[in-house]
Specification:
4-stranded antiparallel β-sheet, elongated, mainly beta, 1 helix, 42% strand, 1% helix
């Protein structure tokens, strides 16, 4: 089995850098792009486990990397609930205001992919960045969005028997460039070195040594990029799972349905906190060099 096969197909103009997924053997034609030993060349999605780089895949270059501190305001406890009881006696709600924080100015002229990390976790939609002690209903959620000029965090919160103190959180922001088009050389260039500038290009100009790319890594201090679901609903409540596997249930266990009202106030029924078993989907570990 050959490691680090770097090959182009003159018919499809595909270029790939990969390990041969199967041993070549005596019947393999190493120069044939359609031989089984070169399968990732023309089927990159089917050969992801063997690929290091492919011209058809978006090899994500970092346009901007910045760390932005955000000071989030305090969130108070809730007000009156059914029967005059205060939130926290089995009460829970979502509150405002919704706040959009500017966390980076990229000026790319288009809406780029933006990754924002807290610690080693890349933020997923509705990510919990602060949770009140004892899971009493107070939680702060953020989501990432961008426009053609800036990247933002959208914040909202929930509340119960305990409020949230003001907190300052540092967010690591990675703004990704769109991948450039191939240079269009016929045949496409596998690799090119400019002896004057020292710049190395690969894949007909789609990879350059002057760029910084996200990399899949086996260790170090990577970011966890979720491959699937990050939240689940059960029994009327949600569970969030961070890319590092941390489980967060913002709805307090004391939350119950109110099914009747008498002279003493509301009468409560079954609890409606999360009662499922979701533990999160797999993640890809990546880091920016």
């Amino acid at each position: 089995m050959v490691k680090w096969a770097f090959m182009t197909d003159p018919l499809t103009n595909n270029i790939g850098l990969y390990d041969e997924p199967v041993p070549g053997g005596s019947s393999a034609d190493f120069e044939d792009p359609n031989s089984a030993c070169n399968a990732p060349l023309n089927d990159p999605e089917g050969g992801l486990a063997s690929l290091y780089w492919h011209i058809l895949l978006d090899n994500m270059a970092v346009a901007l990397e910045v760390t932005t501190p955000v000071t989030h305001a305090a969130v108070t406890t809730g007000g009156a609930g059914p029967g005059g009881t205060v939130l926290g006696s089995g009460q829970f709600d979502y509150t405002g205001p919704i706040v959009d924080w500017e966390i980076a100015t990229h000026g790319l002229g288009y809406e780029p992919i933006v990754y924002v990390a807290v610690g080693n976790n890349l933020i997923t939609p509705g990510y919990i960045v602060q949770l009140a002690s004892g899971i009493t209903g107070g939680a702060r959620f953020v989501s990432v969005w961008s426009d053609s000029t800036k990247a933002y965090l959208r914040e909202y919160s929930s509340r119960g028997s305990a409020g949230l103190p003001s907190t300052t959180i540092s967010y690591d922001v990675l703004v990704m460039k769109r991948q450039p088009a191939a240079e269009g050389n016929i045949p496409p260039q596998l690799i090119d070195l400019d002896p004057v500038t020292g710049i190395v290009k690969m894949g007909d100009g789609r990879w350059k040594s002057t760029e910084r790319y996200l990399q899949v890594v086996p260790g170090g201090s990577p970011y966890g990029l979720a491959m699937g679901r990050t939240m689940d609903a059960n029994n009327g409540a949600v569970r969030f799972v961070s890319p590092d596997g941390t489980t967060l249930d913002p709805v307090p266990a004391v939350l119950k349905t109110a099914y009747a009202t008498n002279k003493f106030g509301a009468v409560y029924g079954a609890t409606i906190n999360y009662q499922g078993s979701f533990t999160g989907d797999p993640v890809i570990l990546v880091q920016a060099p």
